[in-house]
User: Which sequence fits this backbone?
DNA sequence: TTTCTAGTTATTTTCGAACATAATTCAAAT
DNA sequence: ATTTGAATTATGTTCGAAAATAACTAGAAA
């Protein structure tokens, strides 16, 4: 209810003033040549475009299973729910399709990617591979600031002492946020932009399975001691031990989720 | 000039006939529930939507370096070049952004992803990882039809006996097509949809580096014997030897490309 | 000459409406 | 009762125009 007034498209534009638009001049010469890296300094660039925000919101709703697996994503509903135009929605869904969160059938629209035990197994294998790869690189190359980021993120995570089935939604979201930031801090010295990007999509997909199991069972396992131990091993630069623990950390989470799938 | 009439959007719709559109009926109940997998049989589903086609065309032009690295992708130019609307272009560019082929800066448009030696190094490492992973899975699980696909693809590839700097563009494109199909056939028994998808994007990015070097040097290395040997090892189910050869195959190509970058 | 500032142009982003395709309904015939 | 096919409804796709942002230019002040 109250879909119209509940949310503004992130940039306030209540009024629309007309504007004169003179006929455009003659066509410019072809400008397909590479952009000059030259004198023009870095500009603002911090304002996120509306579509990016929308994409993040959709991704989060899929990961949180607010939009459950295999659910149809009709533009009418999405337009109401997110207060965005059709074009923006299509752009976001296209990106999420490339990320594997959404399936697109030509002329039949989009739907949330389905889940299965096989898919979880496959996802978990890749996650182990990528998390360990990034972790080894970080341990090898990390500097003092990297260590500081880990310590700080772990502290933030530990400040949430107890989390359980009776915790509120926002508490759970906050814990998940800090949990994600901790894991990201561990890997944040990995120099490969590509590895980090793929890892992020895999991590989100794993998060979806975990949230799904959580929604179905209500059980929560925090295993805080593993995080402390993981940080210790990483800061001691023991790559083998750290990767071993990371692997069991991921496998354990996958097993917990797998029991509730199908 | 003549951007309006120069190109039809791939599905003929020259005339537009008006249509009566009655006021829609009362709203339907919420239909966010999962779609029934039920009685509805598989429909046509073979007609690719225009945007998908456009996306493939853009991807190919980037890989072929028709759109060189770091080139700005202005909507005006793209609209002329591909005869598509702005919305479709944005969708395609968004997907290519997720694939790593395009960079998007908020409110400043899109540009072709840049290249560098570091990036090539990073890409190559991941390619070795994924090609070998898929290859091992295929060798383990492949059946008779898989073997037949390999033999057929190799035959198609070998039919192009000579390729060189004096070959025409379409000949080069045909060889590259068959080369890609051969490599895909080798891995086509890998059951992981995820591995295959990521591998595809990495393969395309590698293809871009190779084409870039080719455009700058004119040199072509075909190493046909490696393909024959690779097929032999794979069909003999010798995973270790096949992966070793695959690795050197990829590293060699990367070295050839790397000499011409920067 | 250099440096701001305001106006101007160029480009991107967003939204709605028209068009195309799929899903549904319903009546008639077997 | 079942099936077939046409009309209808619902939904997805495409395109152009208006609004928003950035890039550029020129003119005035230091």
Assistant:
């Amino acid at each position: 209810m109250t879909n119209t007034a509940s949310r503004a498209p992130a940039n306030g534009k209540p009024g629309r003033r007309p504007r004169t638009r003179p006929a455009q001049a003659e066509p410019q010469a072809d400008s397909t040549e590479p952009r000059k890296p030259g004198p023009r300094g870095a500009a603002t660039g911090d304002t996120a475009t509306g579509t990016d925000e929308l994409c993040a919101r959709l991704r989060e709703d899929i990961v949180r299973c607010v939009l459950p697996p295999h659910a149809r994503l009709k533009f009418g509903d999405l337009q109401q729910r997110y207060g965005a135009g059709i074009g923006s929605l299509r752009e976001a869904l296209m990106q999420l399709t490339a990320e594997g969160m959404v399936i697109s059938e030509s002329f039949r629209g989009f739907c949330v990617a389905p889940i299965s035990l096989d898919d979880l197994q496959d996802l978990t294998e890749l996650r182990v591979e990528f998390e360990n790869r990034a972790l080894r690189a970080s341990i090898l190359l990390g500097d003092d600031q990297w260590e500081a980021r880990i310590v700080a993120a772990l502290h933030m995570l530990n400040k949430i002492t107890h989390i359980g089935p009776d915790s509120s939604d926002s508490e759970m979201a906050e814990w998940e946020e800090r949990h994600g930031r901790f894991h990201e801090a561990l890997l944040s010295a990995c120099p490969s932009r590509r590895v980090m990007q793929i890892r992020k999509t895999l991590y989100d997909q794993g998060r979806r399975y975990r949230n799904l199991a959580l929604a179905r069972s209500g059980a929560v396992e925090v295993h805080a001691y593993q995080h402390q131990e993981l940080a210790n091993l990483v800061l001691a630069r023991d790559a083998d031990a750290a990767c071993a623990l990371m692997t069991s950390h991921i496998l354990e989470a996958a097993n917990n989720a797998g029991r509730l799938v199908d």
Observations:
- Residues 9, 11, 13, 22, 24-25, 28, 49-51, 84-88, 107-109 of chain A lie near DNA strand C (CB under 10 Å from a C1').
- The first strand of chain A starts at residue 72 and ends at 73.
- The first helix of chain A runs from residue 3 to 6.
- The two ends of chain A are 33 Å apart (CA to CA).
